[in-house]
Structures are given as C-alpha cells and as structure tokens.
Amino acid sequence: MSLGLLFAPSLPLGAKETLSVAWSHWPPFSQIEADGELGGLDVALTRQILRGADLEPAFRNLPWARALHLMARQQLDVAMGALKTPERARFARFSAPYRRASFVLLSHKPAPGSTDRWQGITHLADLCQQTGLRLGKLRGTRPLPLSDACPSLRQASEYNSDDRLIALLLARRLDGVIIEWQYARHRLAQLGAEGFTSCQVLLHQQPVSLMLARETVSEEELARIDAAIAALPPLDTAFAPPECRFDGSQPREESTQG
Fold it and tell me: To which protein family does this belong (predicted)?
C-alpha cells in the first residue's frame, strides 16, 4: 500500500468527533517526516481508519508507558499498534487487527577470517540447545511462543532499546537480536548496514490493533472503526515478513509481546 494513498479526504472538522491518539518515534510506523509533518505507516493507517469511521485523530507525542497509564485513567482515547492482553482489556476495547508485526532473530555476518557461529545450526532444535550464543531482546517483552521450549531464546539478555540492540549487533558484541523486523530494516538502512545482517528465524507474526479507551470510545464507534479496517486495501509487499533460514512462526500460538 502506498502511504500517499492512505490519506482519505476528510469532512469538515466540526462534523467529526475528535479522538486523542498517542504516538512516539517508531519508524517506519510513526515519525516526523522531512517536511516536518507527522507520518509513518501506523499514523497513515490510523488517519484513514478513523476518518473512514467519521472520527478525527488528534495526535499526542507520548511514551508508550505514559500512553498506557493515561488510557487506563480514560484520559487518552487511542493507542496504535497495540496487542490485546487480559490486563488491557479491563480498561480498553480493541479494534480488528489492521496489520501484522513480524518478530525475527537477526544475526550479524561473520567478520572476514572468523568462524560463522551459525554455520552448524541446521535445525531450530540446534539453535535452542546452543549455550554459547550471545542473544539480546528488548527489556520487558513477554516470552515469544517459541522461547518457552527454546532455552537459548528464553535466556536472551535484556536491553532498554531496540537501537541499543542494533548497535551491539553491529559491533559484534551480540551474536543475534530478537527484534521487530520493519523497525530493524528501517534502522539498518539509515545506518547503511543492510548487508551486515542475516535473518536466522522468523519467530512470529503478531496482529496489532487500535486500542481504544473503554469509557470514551463507544461500541458503536468501534463498529464503525472495524468497518473502516475491513475496507482497507492490502498492504504493500514491502511490509511483508523477510525470508529467514527458519520459520518458527507456525503452527504455534501468537505471542503477547508489546
């Protein structure tokens, strides 16, 4: 889907109810573009979805933890790219999924003359029994479906940001990182390091939704939002998951990361 095609013409603002929508810097999903305007895939999709439901978004720059806090207090209407959990369902409604996030295990390519740590790993079972791999993941993420039965993934060290994970991978201080693919792809392209990494495992594909404050967004508005999501055209193939050595995403259950 071309981002330029996502922006549907809006009715006069006075004809629509305005909903506050949290965003934070998370390219390519939400970011300030070169022209100074807020853009990105989630921002563009959310604009089209809400305007298709006869609603108007008012974006607020908020860290994710702050957005969750405000939504729990019914002081924020919408959060983008959300995963449905029992805890969140106590204070929020969830739209139908509007895209899927792909989580992968990326490795660095070996330095010239050095041993490839991944060469002898020919099956997922081999990976799970590795004890010498230095793996990292984002702090606070919930276990991936595969990791419960995969000690090497379960024991990955935690770091405070995806940028830190990528920096350690590029410095070869980590052998692999568990990360959201589109963000990693975007960041590696910015750094001119696309050819430095390999995708070892497609860990899972997670549907994400709009999370809506239960007391400020009605069931009727949710129904209109879901209808607008159903009318979206397919996403561009650029947002498809990568080709990896192993596919660990099927047939296991979806994870609850995010």
Answer: Belongs to the bacterial solute-binding protein 3 family.
Could you tell me the two tokens for 58?
């008012």
CB atoms within 10 A of CB 219: 8
Token pair, residue 170, equals: 């590029």
Q: Which two tokens stand for residue 79?
A: 């959060």
Structure-token match 């606070």, residue found:
140
Buried b (16+ CB within 10 A) or exposed e, 193-209: eeebbbbbbbbbbbebb
**One-character DSSP codes across 164-203:** HHHHHHHTTSSSEEEEEHHHHHHHHHHTT-GGGEEEEEEE
pLDDT at position 159, please?
93
Contact yes or no for 250/146 (Cβ under 8 A): no
What average pLDDT does the chain have? Answer: 87
Say how far residue 173 (Cα) sits from the centre of its chain: 24
